[in-house]
């Protein structure tokens, strides 16, 4: 197996040859294998289209390695090279051959002041060829390297055209302390070296000594251990292990805590040159600090007007290197107020000068220059929280050359800060400069609060004077109630009269503020397919009482507006000559918890009414650090890209991080806090691809753009130790119609702080939900329907926020489709049950071995223990509890050290048939062809047939037990009754210890005294009748 790096081209490189151009070549370093491309002379946009191959002996370790790609300028005036930029690609981003796509990577700097620009286009993939490692031929060949041409001449057969040309370079490993940055950047190549080694495509850097002018002999095979196994042998033993390792939780060691550069309170220039100092603060201690240059453009005054138009349409432009940000413009205003903030990441700063321009917007011609203000970044102050915001100052505008002050002033504030700054969420970010229009609002971080949900209970008691439209008949009346999109009906009244009665509860979900009305209609079922409206009333929800306990509320009569006066309906529709009344008992339930998520992953158990809330027992802090190795989710400019953001939900609080544009390894470093009211709750985090940025993004699939799910993580708080920081990389695993796929990793820092240990212990003995769920519980169907309605309301309300938290995001976070049928989930749940019963089954097998004397020593010890417990029965319960105590102490050594995560093996996701996955992702109702639906229906019938047989066998055994005393079989019942009489006399006369001792010794008797035939009680029980004979 080999790793292939296809170097396609580069764009907009920095000129380095002194003539406005560069002769660029690419050097790729993987592990200790180093190779390079040919040199393209005099071209700032070189095209190589060259493949570089590396031997990959352990595919499993690729996710822990990285590939470093460097671009250099090949100097001709004197030997050496200039650094043009580098790219580091994480090994987890490498795909198999056939899945590769062309990716463009912006070139990174070697250090802060490196003048680097441009990007490079690469294709990286794993190729299964060659299947065996390249052989080492015995006769070594001499390879002479020509530094002027960068090519190699060998006496052996040259590599194929698809492979890169071998180039060996000698790097200097020593540097003088006083060397300048320019000298460090120009890495000189010493004299040509003559290398004698086998004809392979790469040279290991540790095997080539950087000594110029000497011949280097490759070590003999005896000295260098060479793997003998072929790739197939390695793959066979590692395929399952690598897949399991890929889905595991990984430990990480991020540098958490808010650390400020030394001298932050002194001169402002310290942040440009020094790294972390010793000052710590506690506000953002679960994330890695990210430094930003903030520019607040407040307002301007006394701006000059245009000599032609006589007006001024001003706007401000902030320029830092290649980044430009503009404020909104005002028409005909010489004293504009913008109050906008611009943020530039320190990692991407390419200049030491910040320029703020004021310009006059022109509709046709080029915008007029008004003035500018220039700042030296070495003099920018640093703001350290919790300092107050930096006060803006007035600055006089300068001309283009910065020599003369011109008319007009602008109020600015420039400072260095972190993502903890209050200006960060609403600032314009340089790394998202490509987003325009409405997309700017969709990339910002935001905190949302779920609407306050209530259960609305409508008890329809009765109605009076219900007049049908047809005279001479009694109505088949029922009541239909509607709140928003929720519609419920009562049954048809069993009393056919003009005063029907129902006494039936209808339960709805309502959200504050109450925008909907309760609409009640009384209808007459005149035909199975036709209902006639007899009366209607609309009641505001604010009219009803809020109940905080189980005590009943007062009932009320409401007059209905009547419809249907026959031929006079058009003239008398609104005349209330005769009114129908309905008797209702309506209340808003405040003592229930309105569930908008599954009880298995519930994050909040508090009742609706705030008066019933308890004090919080702890604080949950989550640092959303970054993601690694995300898969491309859409295409943009004919290349794969991902615009990722993270959503976290716990209780009523939702948080959304900012969107990182065009990055497979986004870094958010945002920290959020929740109050915890119950430790047995779950926090859910999901990563999504933002498809609402405008432009030419093309999400996968057709139809309206939807934010694509990348993966989800759940963390149960009760599995966390208190006051401990967990830093792990969680695998983002999604199930697709093609199978399970890892979409990347989400790096988190989590800490659960307990405020009162006594309150936590107290909660473990109390119900999970409020007491009204147990005093007046809902049915299972009601719980499912109400949860779906609550989820729809939450999705609709959060979708109206700015930026919106869209419906597909809310449904994925709340597991909206968890109730749908899935063959995969059914298998997973079945094997979960079998795993639980495995301990009992193992115990029964052990006891059976004891009874059959498979291990005589164990059986004798069991006999001794049994006799001791019979003689001293008071030791039975203490022995059981002491045994469980010892097991608990023993298992403490093997306790889980990491939070649980998504388990593909437990979910039965790795061994699922593609058709079962296709069925799981099918819509409801189905949209598949009839033949496919028929096949799936037959498969479901076969599975249900087996379940039906098992359930029938269980029912048969229960009915046989009932027939012991039912005289269904007179002879069997007579025998059992006589046996009970004899047993009662014997047990009364004989001491219980003797009976227990005899029964135990009989059960543990030696196999010599056993028969291979079933026992008498078993034969008697199997002959008893059941009701299976009466079934059709």
Low-confidence stretches: 131-239, 261-282, 564-577
**What fraction, in percent, of the residue positions are helical?**
10-25%
Cα(first) to Cα(last) distance is 64 Å
Strand content: 25-35%
Which shape, going by the Cα principal axes? globular
Number of H/I helices: 16
pLDDT averaged residue by residue: 81
Main sheet?
5 strands, mixed
Number of strands: 48
Over the alpha carbons, how many angstroms does the gyration radius reach?
A: 39 Å
Structural class estimated from helices and strands: alpha+beta
Task: Write the topology of this structure.
Blueprint (H helix, E strand, L loop, with lengths): L1 E10 L12 E7 L2 E4 L10 E9 L10 E9 L6 E10 L4 E2 L6 E4 L12 E9 L13 E6 L4 E4 L26 H5 L8 E4 L5 E2 L10 E3 L13 H16 L3 E2 L6 E4 L8 H4 L2 E6 L9 E11 L12 E7 L2 E4 L10 E9 L7 E8 L7 E9 L16 E6 L6 E14 L9 E2 L16 E4 L3 E12 L12 E7 L2 E4 L11 E11 L5 E11 L2 E11 L4 E3 L8 E4 L1 E2 L6 H4 L8 E9 L28 E11 L5 E2 L4 E2 L2 E7 L2 E4 L10 E10 L5 E8 L8 E2 L8 E9 L8 E12 L2 E16 L2 H7 L8 H4 L4 H19 L8 H7 L9 H29 L4 H16 L4 H17 L21 H7 L9 H33 L7 H20 L2 H12 L12 H7 L10
Helix pairs in contact: 7-8, 10-15
């Amino acid at each position: 197996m080999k790793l292939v790096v296809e170097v396609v081209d580069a764009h907009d490189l920095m000129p380095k040859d002194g003539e406005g151009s560069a002769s660029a070549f690419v050097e790729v370093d993987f592990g200790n294998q180093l190779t390079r491309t040919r040199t393209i002379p005099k071209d700032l946009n070189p095209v190589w289209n060259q493949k570089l191959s590396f031997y990959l002996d352990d595919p499993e370790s690729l996710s822990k390695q990285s590939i470093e790609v460097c671009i250099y300028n090949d100097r001709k005036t004197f030997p050496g090279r200039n650094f043009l930029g580098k790219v580091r690609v994480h090994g987890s981003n490498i795909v198999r051959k056939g899945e590769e796509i062309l990716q463009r990577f912006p070139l990174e700097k070697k250090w802060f002041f490196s003048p680097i620009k441009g990007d490079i286009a690469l294709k990286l993939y794993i190729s299964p060829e060659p299947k065996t490692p390249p052989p080492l031929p015995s006769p070594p060949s001499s390879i002479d390297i020509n530094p002027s041409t960068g090519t190699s001449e060998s006496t052996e057969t040259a590599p194929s055209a698809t492979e890169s040309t071998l180039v060996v370079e000698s790097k200097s490993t020593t540097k003088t302390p006083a060397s300048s940055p320019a000298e460090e950047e120009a890495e000189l190549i010493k004299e040509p070296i003559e290398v004698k080694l086998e004809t392979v495509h790469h040279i290991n850097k540790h095997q080539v000594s950087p000594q110029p002018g000497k011949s280097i002999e490759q070590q003999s095979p005896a000295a260098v251990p060479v793997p003998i196994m072929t790739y197939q042998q390695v793959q066979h033993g590692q395929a399952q292990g690598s897949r399991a390792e890929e889905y595991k939780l990984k430990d990480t060691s991020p540098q958490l805590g808010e650390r400020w550069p030394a001298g932050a309170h002194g001169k402002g220039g310290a942040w440009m040159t020094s790294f972390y100092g010793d000052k710590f603060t506690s506000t953002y201690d679960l994330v890695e600090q990210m430094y930003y240059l903030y520019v607040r453009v407040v307002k301007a005054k006394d701006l000059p007007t245009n000599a032609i138009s006589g007006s001024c349409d001003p706007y401000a432009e902030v320029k830092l290197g290649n980044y430009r940000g503009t404020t909104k413009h005002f028409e005909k205003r010489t004293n504009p107020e913008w109050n906008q903030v611009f943020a530039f990441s320190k990692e991407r700063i390419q200049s030491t000068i910040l320029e703020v321009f004021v310009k006059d917007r022109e509709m046709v011609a080029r915008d007029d220059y008004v003035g500018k203000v220039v700042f030296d970044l070495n003099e920018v102050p640093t703001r350290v929280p919790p300092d107050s915001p930096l006060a803006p100052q007035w600055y006089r505008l300068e001309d283009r050359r910065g020599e003369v002050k011109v008319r007009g002033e602008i109020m600015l504030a420039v400072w260095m800060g972190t993502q903890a700054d209050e200006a960060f969420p609403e600032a314009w970010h340089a790394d998202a400069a490509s987003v325009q229009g409405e997309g700017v609002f969709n990339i910002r971080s935001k905190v949302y609060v779920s609407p306050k949900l209530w259960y609305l209970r409508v008890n329809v008691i009765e109605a009076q004077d219900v007049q049908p439209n047809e005279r001479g008949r009694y109505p088949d009346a029922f009541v239909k109630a509607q709140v928003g999109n929720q519609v419920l009906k009562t049954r048809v009244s069993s009393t056919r009269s003009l005063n029907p009665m129902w006494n039936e509860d209808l339960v709805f979900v309502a959200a504050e503020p109450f925008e909907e009305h309760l609409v009640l209609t009384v209808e007459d079922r005149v035909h199975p397919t036709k209902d006639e409206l007899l009366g209607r009333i609309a009641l505001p929800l604010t009219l009803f009482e809020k109940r905080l306990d189980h005590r009943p509320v007062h009932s009320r009569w409401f007059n209905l507006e009547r419809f249907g006066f026959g031929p006079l309906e058009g003239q008398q529709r609104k005349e209330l000559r005769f009114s129908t009344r309905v008797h209702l008992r309506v209340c808003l339930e405040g003592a229930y918890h309105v569930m908008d998520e599954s009880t298995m992953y519930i994050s909040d158990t508090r009742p609706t009414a705030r008066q019933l809330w308890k004090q919080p027992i702890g604080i949950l802090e989550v640092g959303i650090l970054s993601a690694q190795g995300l898969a491309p989710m859409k295409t943009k400019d004919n290349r794969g890209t991902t615009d990722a953001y993270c959503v976290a939900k716990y209780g009523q609080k939702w948080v959304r991080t900012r969107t990182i544009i065009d990055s497979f390894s986004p870094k958010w470093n945002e920290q959020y806090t929740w109050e915890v009211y119950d430790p047995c709750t779950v926090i859910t985090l999901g990563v999504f691809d933002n498809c609402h940025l405008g432009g030419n993004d093309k999400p996968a699939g057709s139809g309206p753009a939807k934010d694509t799910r990348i993966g989800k993580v759940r963390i149960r708080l009760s599995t966390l130790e208190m006051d401990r920081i967990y830093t792990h990389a969680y695998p983002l695993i999604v199930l697709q119609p093609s199978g399970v796929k890892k979409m990347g990793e989400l790096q988190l820092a989590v800490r659960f702080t307990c405020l009162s240990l006594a309150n936590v212990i107290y909660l473990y003995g109390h119900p999970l939900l409020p007491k009204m769920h147990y005093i007046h519980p809902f049915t299972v169907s009601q719980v499912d329907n109400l949860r779906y309605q609550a989820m729809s309301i939450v999705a609709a309300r959060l979708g109206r926020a700015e930026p919106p938290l869209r419906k597909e995001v809310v449904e994925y976070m709340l597991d909206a489709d968890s109730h749908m049928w899935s063959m995969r989930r059914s298998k997973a749940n079945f094997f979960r049950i079998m795993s639980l019963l495995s301990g009992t089954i193992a115990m029964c097998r052990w006891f059976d071995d004891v009874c059959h004397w498979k291990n005589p020593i164990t059986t004798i010890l069991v006999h001794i223990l049994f006799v001791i417990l019979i003689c001293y029965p008071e030791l039975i319960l203490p022995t059981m509890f002491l045994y469980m105590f010892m097991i608990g102490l023993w298992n403490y050594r093997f306790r889980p050290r990491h939070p649980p995560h998504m388990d593909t093996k437990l979910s039965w996701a790795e061994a699922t048939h593609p058709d079962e996955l296709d069925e799981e992702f099918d819509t409801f109702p189905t949209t598949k062809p009839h033949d496919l639906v028929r096949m799936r229906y037959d498969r479901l019938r076969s599975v249900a047939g087996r379940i039906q047989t098992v359930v029938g066998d269980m029912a048969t055994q229960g009915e046989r037990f009932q027939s012991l005393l039912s005289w269904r079989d007179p002879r069997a019942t007579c025998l059992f009754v006589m046996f009970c009489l004899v047993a009662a006399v014997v047990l009364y006369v004989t001491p219980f210890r003797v009976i227990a001792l005899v029964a135990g010794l009989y059960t543990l008797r030696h196999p010599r005294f056993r028969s291979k035939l079933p026992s008498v009680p078993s034969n008697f029980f199997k002959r008893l009748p059941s009701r299976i004979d009466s079934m059709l």
